[in-house]
C-alpha cells in the first residue's frame, strides 16, 4: 500500500481533527490514517431506534446502553460507549501497554477517546502554564477555531473573568439554564453559593456553570434530560471528533484510510515515509510531505520512541491526577431520583489558593445519577432497607477533581523491544511527595468553607485515581524553545525531524488541571496552521 499526499494526519481524535481543520483552512490536501474502530452496527442501530422514539418508550429498549457499567462499593466504573468497549479495543499492530501501577489505556477508535469522554472543557490560564515556550495568547486563536465546529454548552458567568469563553455563540449570562438544563440540586447549590460569593471568592473559591462540549441547541433532538449521559447519549449530543470526521468525509474535503495502525515515521530527502500495519496485519506504507501525529499520548509516545530508536530510554508522562470526593449538602433536594436531568458535570469550581498550590485546582460537580444510588446501595449492603436512601441522595454530590501535574504522580514510559510479541510500552507510577499535602490542603479548606458552601466533604470516602485514570496525561516530548533529546520544538518536532510533528498532549510541557482536551485541540490547531503557513516544508 502506498500513496503520496501533501499532509498526513495520524489519528482522528480531537487533536488530529483540530490539526486537519487547520491544514484544510490553509488549503492543504490531507489524508487521515487510523485504525478507525467504530461502535458495532447492532448497537448503532439500537441507538438510532432509541433516538427516533419518544423517551417515554425508552425504558426497555435502553438496557443495552448500561451493559458493562454499574456502580459498586469499590467506586466509579470505567466508562463505556453505548454498552461497548470499542473505544479501548486492541487492533492488529497495536503496541501492547503494560501498566505496572498506572491505570490507563489508549484508543484505536475513529474519534479516539472522545467517543467516550465527559465533554468537560475549560481553557488553561497563563499562570498554570509556567515554563511553556508558547503563551496563552498563542493558543487563543486555536480555542476560537475549535469552537467553530465543536459545540459548547456554557454560560457567560463569573468564571469568564478567568477563563474566557472564546466564542460569542453561548446564550447570555442571566439564564444559566438556557444552554443545557441544570439539575435542581445544582441550581439550588449555585443559588446558595451566590449568596456567599464575596467570602468564597476572598478565600480563592470561584464557581460557575460547567462548560460542556454538548450540542444543547440541536433543534430536532434537544436534550431530553434522560440522565443517560454516562452511558452514551442516544441523540449523540455529546461531541465526538468522529462527528467532525464524518462531516468532513461527507463533503469530500479529506481522504481517510481506516484500518491502518502506524508504527513509525522516517524522514526522507523530500518527505516522510510512514510505516504501519493494515487491517489484516500486513505491512502498510504511506508517503507524505509532512506528517502530524495525533495518536493520543500513549501511542504518539510509542511511535516517536520507536522512530527515534529510543528503546529502554524512559520518558516522563505527566498526569493531572484525578480524585473523587463525595460531599453532603446541608440542605437536601426532594425527588432527585425521579427528576429529568443530564448527568454530566453541572458546575465547575476553581480553587486559587497559593497556600495549597500556585496552580488552579479544578473541581467538576456532579449531582444525582443512578450510579450514585447503586454505589450507596452496594456500600450499605443489607442496611439499605432501613436507610432513608432518597433523603441521602438528595444531599449527595460528587466532586471529580484534578490537580496540576506539578503536584501529581507521573508515569515513567519505556519502550521495550519484544521479539515475539512486538514492542511493549511499559508504564510505571512515579509518586509525587507533594500530592498528599495538596489534597489534604484542599479537603481541609473545603471543610473550613462548609459554613459558606453548605457542603460537608466526606474526607474518609476520598478516592485518589491511579496515575492515568483520569486520562489527562501527556508531556512525554514537551515543547521547548531549545529542544534537547526527548523534547520537541514549538511545532512539536523532535530533534532531527523537520517534517514530523507530534500534535497531541504528548507535547504539552505540563498538564494544568482545567481539562486537557480543549487545549490539546487548540495547540494542534496552532501547529497545523503555523506549519502550513511555512513556505519551506522543511523550515
Ligand atoms: C472516560 C473518559 C472521560 C474523559 N473526560 C474528559 C473530559 O471531560 N474533558 C477532557 O478534557 N478530557 C476528557 N477525557 C480525555 C480525552 O478523551 C482525551 O484527552 C482526548 O480524547 C485526547 O485526544 P487525542 O486526539 O489526543 O487522542 P485520542 O482521543 O486518544 O485519539 C487518538 C486517535 O489516534 C488513533 N490512533 C491511535 N493509535 C494509532 C496508531 N498507532 N496509528 C494510527 N492511529 C492511531 C485513534 O484511533 C484515534 O483516532 C476523558 C477520557 C475518558 C476515557
Ligand atoms: S440527558 Fe444526556 S444522554 Fe440524555 S439527551 Fe441530554 S445529553 Fe443526551
Account of the protein in words:
- The protein is of the alpha+beta class and 539 residues long.
- Helices cover 25% and strands 20% of the residues.
- The chain has helices at residues 14-25, 41-52, 58-61, 136-149, 184-195, 197-202, 241-250, 296-307, 370-380, 389-393, 434-448, 450-453, 517-533; strands at 4-10, 30-34, 96-100, 205-209, 255-258, 261-268, 271-277, 283-293, 315-319, 322-329, 347-351, 361-366, 396-402, 410-416, 424-430, 455-457, 463-464, 473-474, 500-502.
- The two termini are 29 Å apart.
- Mean pLDDT is 93; it is low at 173-178.
- It binds flavin-adenine dinucleotide and iron/sulfur cluster.
- Residues 10-16, 33-35, 79, 106-110, 112-114, 116-121, 261-262, 294-296, 299, 471, 504-505, 515-517, 520 line the site of flavin-adenine dinucleotide.
The structural domain count equals 1
The gross shape turns out to be globular
Bound molecules: flavin-adenine dinucleotide, iron/sulfur cluster
CATH class: Alpha Beta
Give the low-confidence spans.
Answer: 173-178
How many DSSP helices? 13
Biggest sheet character: 7 strands, mixed
CATH architecture term: 3-Layer(bba) Sandwich
Please tell me how large the radius of gyration is: 23 Å
What's this, in brief?
With 539 residues, the protein is of the alpha+beta class. The chain has a single domain, classed as 3-Layer(bba) Sandwich (FAD/NAD(P)-binding domain).
Helices and strands in order, then pairings?
Elements: E1 4-10, H1 14-25, E2 30-34, H2 41-52, H3 58-61, E3 96-100, H4 136-149, H5 184-195, H6 197-202, E4 205-209, H7 241-250, E5 255-258, E6 261-268, E7 271-277, E8 283-293, H8 296-307, E9 315-319, E10 322-329, E11 347-351, E12 361-366, H9 370-380, H10 389-393, E13 396-402, E14 410-416, E15 424-430, H11 434-448, H12 450-453, E16 455-457, E17 463-464, E18 473-474, E19 500-502, H13 517-533
Parallel strand pairs: 1-2, 1-8, 2-5, 3-15, 8-19
Antiparallel strand pairs: 4-11, 6-7, 7-8, 9-14, 9-18, 10-13, 10-16, 10-17, 11-12, 12-13, 14-15
Iron/sulfur cluster binds near residues 224, 226 and 227.
Amino acid at each position: 500500500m502506498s500513496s503520496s499526499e501533501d499532509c498526513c494526519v495520524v489519528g482522528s481524535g480531537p487533536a488530529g481533527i483540530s490539526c486537519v481543520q487547520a491544514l484544510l483552512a490553509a488549503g492543504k490536501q490531507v489524508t487521515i490514517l487510523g485504525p478507525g474502530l467504530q461502535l458495532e452496527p447492532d448497537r448503532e442501530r439500537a441507538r438510532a431506534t432509541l433516538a427516533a422514539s419518544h423517551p417515554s418508550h425508552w425504558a426497555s429498549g435502553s438496557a443495552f446502553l448500561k451493559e458493562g457499567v454499574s456502580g459498586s462499593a469499590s467506586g466509579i466504573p470505567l466508562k463505556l460507549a453505548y454498552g461497548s468497549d470499542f473505544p479501548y479495543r486492541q487492533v492488529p499492530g497495536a503496541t501492547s501497554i503494560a501498566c505496572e501501577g498506572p491505570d490507563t489505556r489508549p484508543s484505536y477508535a475513529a474519534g479516539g477517546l472522545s467517543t467516550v469522554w465527559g465533554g468537560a472543557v475549560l481553557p488553561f490560564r497563563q499562570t498554570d502554564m509556567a515554563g511553556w515556550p508558547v503563551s496563552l495568547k498563542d493558543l487563543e486563536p486555536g480555542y476560537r477555531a475549535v469552537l467553530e465546529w465543536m459545540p459548547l454548552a456554557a454560560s457567560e458567568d463569573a468564571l469568564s473573568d478567568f477563563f474566557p469563553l472564546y466564542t460569542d455563540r453561548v446564550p447570555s449570562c442571566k439564564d444559566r439554564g438556557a444552554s443545557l438544563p441544570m439539575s435542581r440540586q445544582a441550581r439550588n447549590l449555585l443559588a446558595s453559593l451566590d449568596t456567599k460569593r464575596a467570602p468564597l471568592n476572598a478565600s480563592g473559591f470561584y464557581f460557575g456553570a460547567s462548560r460542556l462540549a454538548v450540542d444543547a441547541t440541536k433543534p430536532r433532538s434537544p436534550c431530553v434530560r434522560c440522565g443517560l449521559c454516562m452511558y452514551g447519549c442516544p441523540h449523540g449530543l455529546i461531541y465526538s471528533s468522529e462527528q467532525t470526521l464524518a462531516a468532513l468525509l461527507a463533503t469530500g474535503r479529506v481522504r481517510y484510510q481506516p484500518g491502518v495502525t502506524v508504527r513509525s515515521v522516517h524522514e526522507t530527502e523530500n518527505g516522510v515515509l510512514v510505516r504501519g500495519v493494515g487491517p489484516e496485519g500486513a505491512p502498510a506504507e504511506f508517503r507524505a510531505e509532512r506528517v502530524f501525529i495525533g495518536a493520543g499520548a500513549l501511542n504518539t509516545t510509542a511511535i516517536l520512541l520507536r522512530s527515534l530508536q529510543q528503546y529502554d530510554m524512559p520518558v516522563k508522562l505527566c498526569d493531572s491526577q484525578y480524585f473523587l470526593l463525595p460531599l453532603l449538602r446541608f440542605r437536601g433536594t426532594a425527588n432527585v431520583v425521579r427528576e429529568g436531568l443530564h448527568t454530566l458535570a453541572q458546575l465547575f469550581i476553581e480553587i486559587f489558593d497559593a497556600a495549597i498550590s500556585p496552580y488552579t485546582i479544578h473541581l467538576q460537580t456532579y449531582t444525582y445519577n443512578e450510579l450514585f444510588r447503586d454505589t450507596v446501595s452496594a456500600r450499605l449492603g443489607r442496611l439499605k432497607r432501613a436507610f432513608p436512601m432518597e433523603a441521602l441522595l438528595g444531599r449527595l454530590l460528587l466532586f471529580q477533581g484534578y490537580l496540576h501535574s506539578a503536584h501529581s504522580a507521573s508515569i515513567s514510559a519505556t519502550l521495550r523491544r519484544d521479539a515475539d510479541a512486538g514492542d511493549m510500552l511499559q508504564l510505571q507510577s512515579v509518586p509525587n511527595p507533594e500530592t498528599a499535602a495538596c489534597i489534604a490542603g484542599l479537603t481541609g479548606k473545603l471543610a473550613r468553607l462548609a459554613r459558606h458552601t453548605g457542603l460537608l466533604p466526606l474526607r474518609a470516602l476520598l478516592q485518589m485515581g491511579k496515575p492515568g485514570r483520569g486520562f489527562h496525561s501527556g508531556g512525554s516530548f514537551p515543547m521547548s524553545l531549545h529542544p534537547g533529546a526527548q523534547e520537541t520544538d514549538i511545532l512539536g518536532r523532535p530533534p532531527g525531524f523537520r517534517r514530523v510533528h507530534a500534535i497531541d498532549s504528548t507535547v504539552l510541557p505540563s498538564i494544568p488541571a482545567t481539562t486537557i482536551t480543549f487545549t490539546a485541540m487548540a495547540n494542534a490547531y496552532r501547529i497545523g496552521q503555523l506549519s502550513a503557513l511555512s513556505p519551506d516544508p522543511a523550515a
